[in-house]
Amino acid sequence: MAVMDWKSLWKWPAALLLWVAVYAYLGPFAGWLTYGALAMRRGSRLASAVEFFAFETPKVLLLLLLVVFGVGIVRSFFTPERTRRILAGRRESAGNVLAALLGTVTPFCSCSAVPLFIGFVTAGVPLGVTFSFLVSAPMVNEVAVVLLLGLFGWKVAAIYTGTGVAIAVASGWTIGRLRLEGHVEDWVFRTHAADAELPDERLAWPDRVAAGRQAVRDIVGKVWPYVVAGIAVGAAIHGYVPENFMASLMGKSAWWSVPAAVALGIPMYSNAAGIIPIVQALLDKGAALGTVLAFMMAVIGLSLPETVILRKVLKPTLIAAFIGVVGTGILAVGYLFNVLF
After folding, report:
1. Are 270 and 299 in contact (CB under 8 A)?
2. Is the pLDDT of residue 190 over 50?
3. Phi and psi of 314, rounded to 5°?
4. Under 8 Å between Cβ of 296 and 223
């Protein structure tokens, strides 16, 4: 890891002040660009879409920069091996909660599912605890939380995070009760987890700041095209879909909307960066919060690509149990929040 000199740390407060100043003027900038520089007519559909795009794109990217930087510092304390050792030997109920919480702050996605699963199982982590982690890690990640915070505010972000962790805990606990260890592929138990070096707990803070900066390059550098594409789709919906149109398809009155949203979300291939701006536009047009949350959770946490990857280590019975248990939790969240909100 590149080492940052302590003397360079003074730059970060100045950078934060610049960030705050830029963020505060995003609204006026979007209005000036739409109605001043581009001279669009107020109230037109195109102007509404352009203003939405001009405001939300830099807003979300700025939020990503700030929070991913902070999470990158947190991640300097973790590796897959450290996470595995933290969870190994834990009692199952406490382990489910700890695994779900660790999944929200560790840098693992569906492409890491197979090596993580092998490492956890061979280290003695109970199957249910392993699944709590595997559900939480992709579903409740920093990109999802940042985008929800920026687009909907802290209440919706907190709701999503809390319910995502609850689904991960409940799903892992349920799978643990089903005693399905025999439905893990036999070769997994014959694999020995490699012992890798743990991160140096004595890393200086300049090094951890450098890790945060690297996280920004790695994560924001990869997801920004999805952010822009998702906001572009959301802007089109915002500007051109009639008000309350989605209420008839994804509203509270349609009892079938929640399972339909989950069924639609599972085969989709997307991530939080691409799907959340679309979610915002759906809500603006009358879709119910519970239905939209269920759709988003299915896309991010129960996607077909992750299921295909997990098939390498799980037999069909355990795959089906995984889909059924997590899907049931997502349905419950959808119906619950349609009643409450």
Report:
1. yes
2. yes
3. -120, 140
4. no
Q: Residues 89-101: what's their mean pLDDT? A: 78
Whether 291 and 257 have beta carbons less than 8 Å apart is answered as: yes
Say if residues 58 and 26 touch (Cβ distance below 8 Å): yes
Q: Is 184 helix (H, G, I), strand (E, B) or coil?
A: strand
Arithmetic mean of pLDDT, 78-90: 66
Q: Residue count of the chain, please give it.
A: 341
Name the residue with higher pLDDT: 273 or 34.
34
274-291, pLDDT tens digit by residue?
777 778 778 877 888 888
Pair 283, 241: CB distance under 8 Å: no
262-285 as b/e: b if 16+ CB within 10 A = beebbeeebbbbbbbbbbbbbbbb
Tokens of 163: 């319910």
Distances (CA, A) of 202 to 77, 84, 206: 10, 20, 11
- Among residues 239, 283, 240, the alpha carbon closest in space to that of 34 is found at 239
Its pTM stands at 0.70
Cα dist from 6 to 9, 11, 15, 195, whole Å? 6, 10, 16, 32
Give the pLDDT mean for 297-308: 77
Max CA separation in the chain (angstroms): 67
- Rounded distance, CA 74 to CA 174, Å? 30
State which amino acid sits at residue 22. V
Measured between alpha carbons, how far is 2 from 120 in angstroms, rounded to an integer? 30
pLDDT at 35: 93
Q: Are 271 and 280 in contact (CB under 8 A)?
A: no
Residues 209, 9 contacting (CB under 8 angstroms) = yes
What is the domain partition of the chain in residue ranges?
10-76+204-240, 94-191+244-340
pLDDT surpasses 90 at 29: yes
**Which residues touch 243 (CB under 8 Å, ≥6 apart)?**
285, 286
Q: Residue 10: its pLDDT value, please?
A: 60
What single letter denotes the amino acid at residue 219? I
